[in-house]
Amino acid sequence: MRRLAHLVHPRTWSPTVLAVVVVGLLWTWVARENPYVLPTLSSVGRQFLEQPDLYLTNAWTTLQEALLGLLAGGVSAVVLAVLVGESALVRRAVTPLAVVLNVTPVVAIAPALVVAFGFGLTPKVLVTGLITFFPVLMNTVTGLRSVDRHVLQVFRTVDASRLDVLVRLRFPSALPYVFSALRVVFPLSLVGAVVAEFAAAGARSGLGTLISVASSNSQLDRVFAAIACLALMGTLMLLLVSTIERRALSWHESQHR
Questions:
Q1: Which of 84, 120, 122, 257 has its CA 20 to 30 A from that of 65?
Q2: Contact (Cβ atoms closer than 8 angstroms) between residue 84 and residue 145
Q3: Closest CA to 77 of 127, 139, 162, 167
């Protein structure tokens, strides 16, 4: 009830509404003065009304690529993080490779993956997985190692196994860090999917492909309609992660401030 009262209070929603109105007015002015820079908001809206199936179909394709890549990158990152946390040898071997992978521009890798794996789903999933892999890996490793040393000493005193320490202490300690990474990589997975679609010139569907084709035909209203779809999808994914985090970490102090 308190949370609901906070949400409906004018001080909560009025700044957002004011910001949206100001941005809308600025957009409208720029679009009227420079029609080749920005389309009018009404023309973008007409795109959705006249061709909803076009955007829904392409959005579904991009969302599938993003979620599959996120699943592949996230799961592999968590598994590797456990190995890194449990073995100093693995940590010394993997950390430099992970850093090199992180600083390598994925935009440069995407065309090579398209050449190697074709224009299908595989290169798009790989690109998305590469983009989401490093944040999840680093945050999970940090979380697994950020346990209370006094509690860890208690576990060692009662001769708890390494598996018990991992499951009952390290994993719960790492959850806030994992969700912090997920808040970043869920929307970021859409970036990976779109980058892969840009690189796959022969692709037939996806919002990235739609943007690329519309740009080449100077269809600004279609370009910005697709961008609006991506923004809406990213916002919904972030809200989903935040909702799950509140439920999963209801016991954690970060949810009671």
A1: 84
A2: no
A3: 139
Q: Is the dihedral of CA 46, 48, 14, 187 positive or negative?
A: negative
Length of the chain: 257
Cα–Cα distance for residue pair 145/81, rounded to 1 Å: 10
Token digits of residue 249: 């970490």
Two structure tokens written together for 205: 């569907």
What is the pTM for the complete model shown? 0.84
Place of tokens 């719960």: 172
For 74-102, write each residue's pLDDT tens digit: 999 999 998 888 777 888 888 888 888 77
In tens, the pLDDT along 177-212 reads 999 999 999 999 999 899 888 887 666 788 999 998
Residues 6+ apart with CB under 8 A from 248: 175, 179
